[in-house]
Amino acid sequence: MAEEVKVKQKMTVPQFKEMKKKGQKFTMVTAYDYAMASLVDKSDVEMILVGDSLGMVMLGYEGTVPVTVDDIIHHAKAVVRGAPHTFVIGDMPFGSYNASVEDAVRNATRIMKEGGVDAVKLEGGKYFAPVIKAIVNAGIPVMGHIGLTPQTASALGGFKVQGKDEKAAQAILEDALAIEEAGAFSVCLECVPHQLGRLISERLSIPTMGIGAGPDCDSQVLVIHDMLGLFDRFVPKFVKQYVKLSDQIIKALNEFSDDVREKRFPDLEHSFTMKEEVLKRLY
Ligand code: KIV
């Protein structure tokens, strides 16, 4: 019997805040295309991030820096079409919010208006609080992103755990508080000690979204290609691979190739037919 497909209701910003108050956890995954977004829409996952990680997993760049606002909009449009029942966030790529507050508001507006997303996410701490405030005042919900910020990983000394000593942890806590104060509805904490994840989650009234930030964050995000085992270039410690689809895909591709070589495919079951008398006349 086919599994029953539930139709979920798209969540709202106040509902996410309410979930934190009630101690209810929620989840986000990345998606970048219609087919994957349609699958997420059929699942219990409440949020999709059209992340700038698309630079690596979809476009084959080394990092996220080359991703453009147009790239995010292009992928967001497909995701929004595929996931009408899921809250969708568009990532603000490197260079789209760093030059001026006006630039940031203009680009966030484009991502929401043209991409059709429900909110945007941007990397950076208290220095970016005025940017977050202006985008929120323009009517666009914002998720902050601190700790390890991949767009500026080289300045942080690479893809390393952040906030391990007292000074660094204090700075990340201050960033989180400034982001909340600026009006963000949530803050993503990437690659920080789980104890710092807990402290920040306790101090903030908005939900924290953890990725490598321990079990006490209010919600958790994973890059979908990592959790489904579709992207093996590197698998960070914080990733749990729920399935290894890349092996299954390669196996299926090899079976197709063998079937064609050995003339097992296509068989009559997968072919079309015509009436015998029509065929006779052709001969
Ligand atoms: O772009 C992305 O996938 C992200 C996640 C790591 C949160 O920002």
Describe the protein in words:
It is a single chain. With 283 residues, this protein is of the alpha/beta class. It folds into two domains: 13-244, Phosphoenolpyruvate-binding domains (TIM Barrel, Alpha-Beta Barrel), CATH 3.20.20.60; 248-282, no CATH class. It is built from eleven helices and eight strands. Strands 1-2-3-4-5-6-7-8 form an eight-stranded parallel β-barrel, surrounded by six helices. The chain starts with 12 loop residues before the first helix and ends with a helix. The structure holds 3-methyl-2-oxobutanoic acid.
By DSSP, the count of extended strands is 8
Helix content class: 40-55%
Order of helices and strands: HEHEHHEHEHEHEHEEHHH
What general outline do the C-alpha atoms trace?
Answer: elongated
Enumerate the spans where pLDDT stays under 50 for 5 or more consecutive residues: none
In short:
40% of the residues lie in helices and 13% in strands. It contains 11 helices and 8 strands.
Task: Give the tags.
binds 3-methyl-2-oxobutanoic acid, alpha/beta, elongated, 283 residues, 2 domains
Give the SSE map.
Layout: H1 13-22, E1 26-30, H2 34-41, E2 47-50, H3 54-57, H4 69-82, E3 87-91, H5 101-115, E4 119-123, H6 129-137, E5 142-147, H7 166-181, E6 186-190, H8 194-203, E7 208-211, E8 219-222, H9 224-227, H10 245-261, H11 276-282
Parallel strand pairs: 1-2, 1-8, 2-3, 3-4, 4-5, 5-6, 6-7, 7-8
Helix pairs in contact: 2-4, 4-5, 5-6, 7-8
Bound molecules: 3-methyl-2-oxobutanoic acid.
